[in-house]
Amino acid sequence: MVILWFSPPVYVKTETKGFRYGVHHVEAAAEELILWTRRGPRWEEAMRVCVDAISGRVSPQQARDAFEEAAKEEGMLFC
Questions:
Q1: Which of 9, 12, 47, 74 could form a disulfide with 24 if both were Cys (CB 3.0 to 4.6 A apart)?
Q2: What's the predicted TM-score (pTM) here?
Q3: Longest C-alpha distance within the chain, in Å?
């Protein structure tokens, strides 16, 4: 399986206060999305776009952008 890398990575919050996790590729983004308990409209879009990227229908950059927007919406983006 080919890794679909992001550039630059998207940093999200972790369960440990003050720590962040760098999401560097589509597969990690999808895995991270599954862990989130809040799932708004941008979460749904990000999950769909990640699946589409894994299937080769969209670029990894499109998945990265959708993941970042979902992280913002859910308050998970590490700033």
A1: 9
A2: 0.94
A3: 36
